[in-house]
Amino acid sequence: MAKIDSIDIVEPASEKTCFHHWIIGDPDGPTSSGKCKLCGTQRDFMNYFEGSSWGSDISLDQLGKSTGATREASYVSVAPNITDDEEE
Q: pLDDT per residue over 40-60, tens digit each?
């Protein structure tokens, strides 16, 4: 008879993979706490998108200058078109 070598059988881990259903708290600074509704795992979530003014910590004035925007609004061209609905 031929010699049969033993084979080790590796069973998968018994832990189930959770497909998280995150419940994220109200915004509180740059991050919010979240907790999985299914397994209870906790994690922090960023309250901004990468590249936003909060993420790079620049002021709105600096952000506006980088895009060429100004805070000065000209209402002169809009004002003649505004009518009072009660006058009719």
A: 999 999 887 766 555 556 666
Q: Could you tell me if 61 and 69 are in contact, meaning their C-beta atoms sit under 8 angstroms apart? A: no
Long-range contacts of 56-59 (CB under 8 A, 24+ apart): none
Tell me phi and psi for residue 85, to 5 degrees: -65, -25
Domain range list for the chain: 22-69
Of residues 19, 48, 47, the one with CA closest to residue 33: 47
Q: What are phi and psi of 25, to 5 degrees?
A: -70, 175
Would you say 32 and 11 are in contact if contact means Cβ atoms under 8 Å apart?
A: no
CB 67 within 8 A of CB 60: no
Q: Say whether pLDDT at 32 is over 80.
A: yes
